[in-house]
Structure formats: structure tokens, C-alpha cells
Amino acid sequence: MASVILGILLILVPLPLSTEAQFGGNLTLGNSLTANDQNSSWSSPSGEFSFGFRRMGAGAYLLAIRFEKIEDKTIVWSANGSSLAPEGSKVQLTADGGLVLTDPRGRELWSSGLTGTGLAYAAMLDTGNFILASANHVNLWDSFSQPTDTILPTQQLDLGANVKARYSEMNYSTGRFLFALQPDGNLVLYSTLGVSDAYWATDTHTAGRMGFRLIFNQSGQVYLTDRNGTRLNTITAELVPTSGYYQRAILEYDGVFRQYIHPKTANSSSVWPMRWSMVSSPVPSNICTRINRGGTGVCGLNSYCTLADNQRPRCQCAPGYILLDSTNEMNGCRQDFISQSCDGSRPEKDQFALRDMLNTDWPQSDYKVSESKTEDWCREACLADCFCVVAVFKDGNCRKKNIPLLSGRKDSSVGGKALIKVRIDDLTLTPIGNGQKKNKNSTLVIIGSVLLSSSVFLNLLLLISYLIYKSFRSRDSKLSRPVHINQVTGMRTFTYQELHEATYGFKEELGRGAFGIVYKGVLGSEDTNFVAVKVLATRTGESEKEFEREVSAIGRTDHKNLVQLLGYCNEGQHRLLVYEFMSNGTLADFLFGTSRPSWYRRTEIACDVAWGLSYLHQDCTRHIIHCDIKPQNILLDGSLTAKISDLGLAKLLMANQTRTTTGLRGTRGYLAPEWFRNMPISSKVDVYSFGILLVELICCRKNYKPEAKIEAQIVLVDWVYDCYHDESVLKLVESDEEASSDIKRVRRFVMTALWCIQEDPALRPTMKKITQMLEGAVEVPVPPVPSSFTSSI
């Protein structure tokens, strides 16, 4: 009998779980999960919800609650969206702290924040709520009271609670929109970028009509009540059978609050007949026209919003503008041409024209309104005004607008006509919204139509067709050409003719520097294998040395934060380098454009650059000093990973060397003091340049800004130190809500930057140490006062 009782006790008493645990009961202290590819989780009793890690990319994991029986495992709550956990991280149920997420080194990434509360157990409930409770079953913490972007049936939001949209579809860091039940009882939707009025509200903040609680009931209704339980406002009114559907309501990354349902199934292994389907009208019904004041609008700067057929907002660039971030259309656009000069000695009116867009406006960008005018007058006035980038003509009024263009929208309710100024060279664009260049074969189509209309030219047509066929076969043959490897450098070699064809005659320029011009090219017959071809200037001396350095040095480097050199050409006077193509351009364009990148992305870029430099200084075969670290030499790939480029100015160090002497190299503003003092140069010059780059990333502005209204802010590093010294670091990011909410990391980054820009190179940390400072692996000591802020400007 005793053995039977013991067996029952062993079944009832929860045992510590392994990293592959699936559990449907209460979790005792000490239970843990590890981030790996074993799909470790804690499940609810029915198995419909689970709490655990979800892989978000290579070696990165999100701690989340999700629907477990749905094919796409939809996430409804997450803990560490702004700081993904590396593989091997652990979440553990502890007596002090409750749930604590740590990385493989034991550093805390997230915590539920419980201290001395008598925590006894945790549980994943069938409602989708994860709870931490005391021995007498009192909830001490639960995920329902700490929502992210989703609410579930039975969940309630009380005064002061809010739901925050994620950054993008697959980025769970905090985004641009907030759904909040304000302390005054008003339930509102608003954008967190810039000072903005709510773009939707229940107006329940007056006596006798004051909101108190938002409820999502099991029948699928989301509604607001007052303190007495009286319903004040119904957000969604659809009634959903509780037994046949899963439900969720979410503030999506596009700023719209939507409710979804999904059919349940008796056989969890069967294929789902449908994905989530919307059952309620979106709130608001047309967000494009609802955001009217302040901020950047739905789509970021210099773009406009249209409502698609599925009622989702789409963000597009006006003619002559391109996306800042090709992976996120909501991040805004930038001009893709040189703006009209305001230098009176260089009139440029005849170099610009206006593109028409009906029912389009950027209502927050007016700087001059002229009444009782004609459309022709409005056109001429904008073309003659160098500040005017768009004029909107409506009802006899001409409204001139300047950069940045705010709150753009295109809708039949807008009316009027937008006149967008572009350079005449850019008039080859296709109709608005396409964003592609005009089909190069359109001329051939016209000629072909004429030739086909006359049998006289039939033989000529056949001849032309044959020549075109030969041309494409010649291009296709590039795939079958033998690949030549130089035995000395170990790099692939190209002929000049190959690269001439790959770049279509060096047609599309990507950028230029002191030693040459970079062109976009494509290898092979498919227009997908893009490369960047750097044509070095035909000269002797320094450029020849640069070529030899780049081929020998870059060819031996291999790191995810360095731009990869694919090969080169050294044929007569022609010297060219072939690099991987970086689709998102330079960090300078990304960082100093009209739309500010997110704080999360800026911190990732800082760490990317730091790791790349650490590799160059310590880990590659021959130690390399870059000598010209600046935003223009940091490139971004399709996923916005930062990679260091342009090692042409690098000074190679032998394994037993730590310092060398060389002529002045690099770019003023980023140069360490020793460049100007005829001192030996070490890898610490890159550390100094990185420090300048880091403060630019923190503050999203250039180090030297002579037009700053406050004199103390003209030199950024001076202002940064002043703010640090006065314990007012928050001033540096006060207009950036995401950074302001992460002030500990901001302060750590600032202290790290101040160490980097010390006048004495010996005081500057190594890049290896800096990577540890940025990641929080080591404590950053109080930096001494730098004394050379302005010496290199």
C-alpha cells in the first residue's frame, strides 16, 4: 500500500522540467526552459496555449505565449521583443524575481519583477493567461495585466493600461502605435512618433460618461464600461460561437485595431482550412485619413498612405522618392534626386518639372498658402520657389509644402491635386505607385509595331530578332564562362569585358570616393545576383597601393559584419573590385535621413560595427586598422545588418606589430588626435572614430551641426558629455520614446562612447572590450573627462 501511495505522490508532485518540457499543470520554483531548437515550452492543460521560446532568426529567440494548435503558432504575448535572447538563454521560475530570463552568460534580459512576494507556483492557463501565484492562489503577476499587442477573450484592461503595436510583422519590439485606456477614462488610438492627437477615441472622459474598463468577452465582443459596469461604447459587436473558434483582438503594426477568429478542429494534425479571418470592422475604418495632426502620419516621412482592397493601409513613395528601408514600407521615403538649389547664382527652375497626383495631400507640411489662384499660377510659383517640393491646388488655393512631408494620404475624400517637383531627368518614371523605371524595351515595342505593319521589313525584322537573340545568348553565356582564381591572392579574377557587361557599361552609379566610383552590376543571366563594382581611378602611386592592399587584405577577411570582396580585375590600366551588393545603402543615408530609425535598430547597428572592428583588430590573419570609420563606410544589407566597407585606406599590421607611422588618412570629424600630432598610429584610431559614430547613432544626428539653434549642441560630443556630467542623459533622446524607455542602455552606450574618444589612446578600450560594454557583459566604469572633443573638427 505504501508503494502505491508513493507512486501516486510521484505522479502528483511536479518535477523540475528539462528544456524539452511540455507541461499542463502548476510549475514549481526552479523550473526552467532553455532557448534552443527543441521547441521547449510549458503548455496549458488543454494544450491550446504554450509559454516558451520561439526561434526568430539565426540564434535569436523570443520568449512568448502562443496558440499551440494553430499551424502558424500565432503569438499573443511576448517578453523580450526589443532584446531577443541568444541560443542557450534560460527562463527560470525563481523565488526572488519570479520569471527571470538570462542569456548564456547569466546576464538578465527580462524579468517579471517580483520581489519578496511569496511566490509559490506558475501556470499556463487555457485562457492564454500565464500567471505567477502565491500558495493561497492569489495572482501576483499575470500576462493579461501586462499585454503587448494582443488581447484574448476574458481579458480586461483597466484605467492606465495600454496595448502597443509591434514594430513590424516579424519584429516584436515596440512599434509606432498605442491603444490606451487613459486615466481620464478615454479610450484612444494614437501614434507615438511626434506630438499627435488621437486618431480614434471613444470620448468617454466627461462626467457621467467616463470609461473604466475594457472587456473582451467570450462571445467575441470588445466593449468599454463605466465604473458601475454600464456599457459605454462597443468596439466590436460580432457574436462568435465560443465552442468553435479561437479569438484574438490585436493592435497591428499598421496602427489599426482588428479582431480575428480561427476555427478549431477535433484533429490537431489536420490541415487548417483557413488562416485568421477578420470578423469585425477595423478601428478606425480608414486610418489613412484619420491621422490629421502632428507626428509623421501612418507611413513615415515623405510617403503617402492609401487604403488597399483588404482595408489595410499601404505606404508608397511619391514620384522621385524611394523607401528609406526596403524591408519596411512604413519607415518613410527620401528624395532620390538632388534638390533644387537655393543659391541665387545658379537658377535651376528649368531643370525641374511637376508630376500630378489627384486626391493626394500632406496636410501638415504647409509653409505658405495663397488663395484665389489658378492651377497654372500654383505650378509656376512652386517651380520658382527653391523651398517648394510639393504644391497642392484645391478650390482655388495653392498650398506650398517643404521637406519633410508629413501625414501623407491619397484618398477620394482628400480632393485637389498634388504637384510634386522632380528633376527632369527623373521623368522616366512609370505611372505613380509603381516605383520602377520605364520599361527599356518600350521603344523596341513601338518600332516592332511599325515594322510588323509592312511586309517589306519582314526580313529586316528577322535579322534584328536574331541579333537580339545573340545578345541575350552572349549575356547568358556568362554563367558558363570558366571561373578564374588567382593562385597568389586566392581571389576570383574577372576580365574588364565581363564587368563592363555586368554593369551594362557602368551605367548605374551607387557612389564615389577618393579612389574611384562604384557601380551596380549583375552576374549571370538572372537579374537577381547583384554586385557592386568599384572602378579605381587610373593613376599611379597611391591607387595602385590601395588596390594591392584591398585584394590581399579583404580577400583574407571573413566576418558577417564586413562587406565581402568577391573578386577583382587587373587588366592593363583597368583595376576593379567586385563586392557583394548592399541593398540598403550607407548608414549615413539611413541615419541622417528624414525618418529616424528605431532605437532597437540603432543599437543593433552599433554592435554590428563593433564586432566587425574587433575582428579586424584581433581575429583576422593579419591585423587591420581601417583608418576611416564613418557612416558613409558602413553599408546595410537587405536585413539592415551593418557591414564595414572600404578597407582601401587600411594599414596592415603584422602579427607582432601594434603601432605604425603613416601619413594623414581618413575623414575630418572622425579622426583621432594622434593623426594631427605626428604620433604612432594604432588600432585605437578606429576606436576613436567608432566613439564618434556611436554618439551619432545614439542621438540620430551628425557630430558637427553648425546650424544648431543652441550653441552648446553644435558639437555633438561636447553636448553628450555635458548631458552625462549633468546626469541629464535623457535630453539626448527625449524625442525618442523607444530610447527614452531604455534609458539604462542609453546611459551605458554614452559612457562607452566617452571612453572611446579619450585623448590618450592608452585610455581607450579595445574593440573587444567595447563589444562587451555595449552588450552589458561587463560594467562600464565612470569615464574621465575627455579634453579633445573639437580637436579634429
Question: Key features?
Answer:
disordered N terminus; Phosphorylase Kinase, domain 1; 4 domains; five-stranded antiparallel beta sheet; disordered C terminus; 28% strand; alpha+beta; Agglutinin, subunit A; seven-stranded mixed beta sheet; 793 residues
Structural notes for this entry:
This protein is an alpha+beta fold and 793 residues long. The protein has 4 domains: 14-166 and 210-278, Agglutinin, subunit A (Orthogonal Prism), CATH 2.90.10; 289-426, no CATH class; 484-580, Phosphorylase Kinase, domain 1; 591-775, Transferase(Phosphotransferase) domain 1 (Transferase(Phosphotransferase), domain 1, Orthogonal Bundle). The strands form 14 sheets. The chain has a 7-stranded mixed β-sheet with strand order 39-40-44-45-43-42-41, with helices on both faces. Strands 3, 4, 5, 6 and 7 form a 5-stranded antiparallel β-sheet that branches. α10 (716-725) crosses α12. The longest helix has 21 residues, at 599-619. It is globular. The model is unreliable at 1-22, 266-272, 427-480, 650-664 and 788-793 (pLDDT under 50).
Count of DSSP H/I helices: 13
First-to-last CA distance: 86 Å
Kindly report the average pLDDT value.
Answer: 80
Largest sheet: 7 strands, mixed
What would you say the CATH architecture of the largest domain is? Answer: Orthogonal Prism
Radius of gyration: 30 Å
CATH superfamily of the largest domain, by name, is: Bulb-type lectin domain
Strand order of the largest sheet: 39-40-44-45-43-42-41
Question: How would you classify the helix and strand content by structural class?
Answer: alpha+beta
Number of strands: 51
Q: Which stretches of 5+ consecutive residues score pLDDT under 50? A: 1-22, 266-272, 427-480, 650-664, 788-793
- CATH top level assignment of the largest domain: Mainly Beta
- The shape, in one word, is globular
Give the helix proportion (percent range): 10-25%
Subcellular location: Membrane
Transmembrane segments: 444-469
Organism: Eucalyptus globulus (Tasmanian blue gum)
Domain Protein kinase: 504-778
